Amino acid sequence: MTLAYSSSSFGAAPTVKTDLLNTAYLPALDLHLVDSSADQAAAKLLSPGRRRAFFMNAHCCNIRRRDPHYAEAVAGADILLPDGIGVELAAKFTGHSLTTNLNGTDFVPQLLQRAASMGKSVYLFGGRPGVADAAAARLVYDIPGLRIAGTRDGFSGAQDTRAVVADINESGADIVLVALGVPMQELWLHRNANDLTANLTLGVGALFDFLSGSVARAPEPVRAARMEWGWRLAMEPRRMARRYLTGNVSFLAHSGLAALRQKRLADVQQRGLDITVAVLALLMLSPLLLAAALAVRVDSGGPALFKQTRVGLNGKTFTMFKFRSMTANAETRRAEILHGSDRDGLCFKSRQDPRVTRVGRWLRRSSIDELPQLFNVLRGDMSIVGPRPALPCEVADYPPRALGRLQVKPGITGVWQVSGRASVGFKEMIEMDLSYIKARSLKLNLQLILRTFGAVVSGRGAY
Predict the structure, then answer these.
(1) Alpha-carbon span 447 to 93, nearest angstrom
(2) 24, 93, 108, 417: which one has the fewest Cβ atoms less than 10 Å from its Cβ?
């Protein structure tokens, strides 16, 4: 496994790439969940090797907290798939947005579609008598070429575990879907993991009921609104009330408190400092901002503001604002002058960049071109103090150590800015940023803000 980027001190999830699959650690849930597209997840699940996969939703997480045997089964799974809006919200509590909601009812048919194209077979185990057969018939109808290795109900057909395992193994199934409900299906798979010969085993909950038509799914608009849980509650209020009302409240409260515990005092202090400094600076410097905007327009025409995509916290991109210091067509001319960089490493910087305008040179020399980023600070994209935000093309070429810069929000000023800016090489900048991230505190941030005034006056490295 290779670390894609490290954990944020704001509690956000570090993403880890394992072959075809990204997984993210969510501190609010204390779980590593898949953080990839459905196609990537299906490709990984069907790749060579044996693996056991479970879906994790709010209900599963609630059971895991109180049932140590189920928790052990979850810990023994090879892959955990995020299922439902509750898990998405828990991820966002710590600043992470999962790539896709991989709920089993939608994802498993997609997985089996790929499996059919690979000539793989599937065994369906669980549900009331006749339900697995009906679900298998529906799958064959929807996915031509899918091979059903066998079916078995989860009532009388599940009483003799040895017979069930023997039947599954004799079928030669490549994939086994177990629908005994949470937590029974996960416990059954965990206990029989060493005896089952199929390469892929999954706990799939109520999937067979939906496929067979025993339980109706919510209409498409309700699913699109992420309210399928509300539909199921309306259809089966007595059975689902405890799970979706009491259970969801308990889940959100627990994950919210867990997320709050992940936040350090320094994080709260930094956000307070960001808002205070940004608001005061905008109020005090508004005449200067207006004058700079007018100077840009008079000098070279075109818009006063320059907007550019940059990479921020945990690799998420955002639109950064600056006063335009270059000609209006500067981005299209970047490739032709890349060879003239005066700076060591990945980040391009040229003292004689022909794209910089007359007013632009003054704006850069005085660092006034950076002042619109105060709006980025108020929006939460940036902090007053932090590593400078990089371009996506630069981050794509980062060595692994440099990805540590993405642990915190990028800043308007920081160690690099007060230590010579563009005269500092790329490797030195990375070490400065990593040292800052490790030691950052309210006191250090205030010191760097004060040192910024001296750096602006000296103009060292500003071009």
Answers:
(1) 30
(2) 93
Q: How far is CA 43 from its chain centroid?
A: 19
Residue whose C-alpha is closest to residue 456's, from 362, 366, 325, 359: 366
Secondary structure letter of residue 359 according to DSSP: H
What is each CA distance from 291 to 5, 210, 297, 353, 364, in whole angstroms? 40, 64, 10, 24, 15
Please say whether the beta carbons of 176 and 198 come within 8 A. Answer: yes
**Using an 8 Å Cβ cutoff, are 210 and 157 in contact?**
no
Instruction: Please provide residue 56's backbone torsions phi and psi, each rounded to the nearest 5 degrees.
Output: -120, 115
Which of the 8 DSSP states describes residue 50? -
**End-to-end CA separation in angstroms for the chain:** 40
Contact residues for 16 (Cβ-Cβ < 8 A; gap 6+): 1, 2, 3, 4, 22, 23, 24, 25, 32
Rounded-to-integer distance, Cα 108 and Cα 138, Å: 13
CB 259 within 8 A of CB 27: yes
Closest CA to 418 of 445, 384, 456: 456
Q: Where are the strands (E) in 27-120, listed by range?
A: 31-34, 51-56, 79-82
* Backbone dihedral angles phi then psi of residue 224, each to the nearest 5 degrees: -65, -30
Q: What is the pLDDT along the chain (463 residues), one digit of tens a residue?
A: 222 323 333 344 445 554 557 888 888 898 999 999 999 999 999 999 999 999 999 999 999 999 999 999 999 999 999 998 899 988 887 767 888 999 999 999 999 999 999 999 999 999 999 999 999 999 999 999 999 999 999 999 999 999 999 999 999 999 999 999 999 999 999 999 999 999 999 999 999 999 999 998 888 888 887 778 788 888 888 888 888 888 888 898 888 888 777 666 667 788 889 999 999 999 999 999 999 999 998 888 888 899 999 999 988 999 999 998 887 666 665 656 655 544 455 555 555 677 788 888 888 888 899 999 999 999 889 999 999 999 998 888 888 888 888 988 999 998 888 886 666 788 888 889 988 888 888 889 999 999 988 777 665 544 4
Tell me the three state secondary structure of residue 151: strand
**What does the DSSP 8-state code read for residue 368?**
G
The Cα–Cα gap between 233 and 86 comes to 15
User: pTM for the complete prediction?
Assistant: 0.59
Provide the b/e sequence for 244-253 (b: ≥16 CB within 10 Å). Answer: beebbeebbe
Six-digit token string for 434: 């990593």
Beta-sheet pairing, 31-34 with 51-56: unpaired
Query: For residue 452, which of 367, 373, 395 has the smallest C-alpha distance?
Result: 367
8 Å CB contact between 371 and 285? yes
Six token digits for residue 197: 């010969």
